[in-house]
Amino acid sequence: MSTFAAVFAPDGGTWRGTEVDLGDADAIDDITDLMLDFGTESGSDMTLLLIEADDEWFAVVRVDETGSDPRVYLSDERVVHDHPVAGILSEAGGLGSPAPVESAGARPDPRPDGDDDLLSDLGVDGEELRSLSVGGGVLPGDVLAVVAERSGFADLLDTMRL
Fold first, then answer.
1. Which residues of 39-56 are buried (b: 16+ CB within 10 A; e: fewer)?
2. How far is residue 48's CA from residue 70's CA, in Å, rounded to a whole number?
3. Cα separations in angstroms, 128 against 113, 132, 146, 153
4. Residues sharing a CB contact under 8 Å with residue 139, sequence separation 6 or more, in sequence order
5. CA separation (Å) from 157 to 2, 27, 53, 126?
6. What's the pTM?
7. Higher pLDDT residue, 103 or 96?
8. Do the bridges between strand 3-11 and strand 57-63 make them parallel or antiparallel, or are there none, so unpaired?
9. 1-57, pLDDT tens digit by residue?
10. Which positions ≥6 away from 84 have C-beta within 8 Å?
11. Among 12, 13, 124, 159, whose Cα sits 20 to 30 Å from the Cα of 98?
12. Which residues pair with 124 in a beta bridge?
C-alpha cells in the first residue's frame, strides 16, 4: 500500500509543509499531536494534513488550534476497513461505519463522508469537494492538487510529490 501524507501550515504570507509518516499512528491523538507540533514550529494556529493512498482515496484533516477537535474529510468511507489510517480518521471524525463492500468486478461510486466544509475559507467549498471526490476519472492526487492550488501551496506540494 502506497500512502502519501504531508502536513501544511501557513507562515505569514507563505505556507510551510513537510511529508510525514503515519505508520506508527494508533489513534487520532498521534496524528493531531504531529500536526500541532508542526503548526507550533511554523507559528501557525491552523494545520492541514493531506493524505492520499493508492490512487484510491484521500483525506484532509484540519486542526485550527490546540485543544480543538480535528475536522476530518474522507473521500470514500468504504476504505475504513482496509486502511488503518482511514479507520483512525473515521473514528475521530465521527464518520459513518459502513459495511465492507464486496467486490464483484465494478466498484461502486465512492461515498465521501465527514466535514466537507473544512476548506471553505481556503477556496474549496463543500459541494465542490464532494463533487471532486465522486467525479469519474479524477484521481485523489488531482483533488489534493486542487486543494493546494486554491489554498496557496501548490508549488510546495508539487516539490514533495516529485
1. beebebebbbbbbbbeeb
2. 10
3. 14, 6, 10, 19
4. 55
5. 17, 25, 15, 21
6. 0.90
7. 96
8. unpaired
9. 589 999 999 988 899 999 999 999 999 999 999 999 999 999 999 999 999 998 899
10. 25
11. 124
12. none
Q: Which grid coordinates are listed for 22?
A: 503515519
- All three cell numbers of 74, joined, read 474522507
Cell for 46?
A: 491552523
DSSP for 70-109?
Answer: PEEEES-GGGGGT-HHHHHHHHHHT---PPPPPPBSBPPP
DSSP label at residue 121: G
Q: For Cα atoms 21, 25, 26, give the angle at the middle one, nearest 5 degrees.
A: 165
Q: Which residue has the cell 493508492?
A: 54
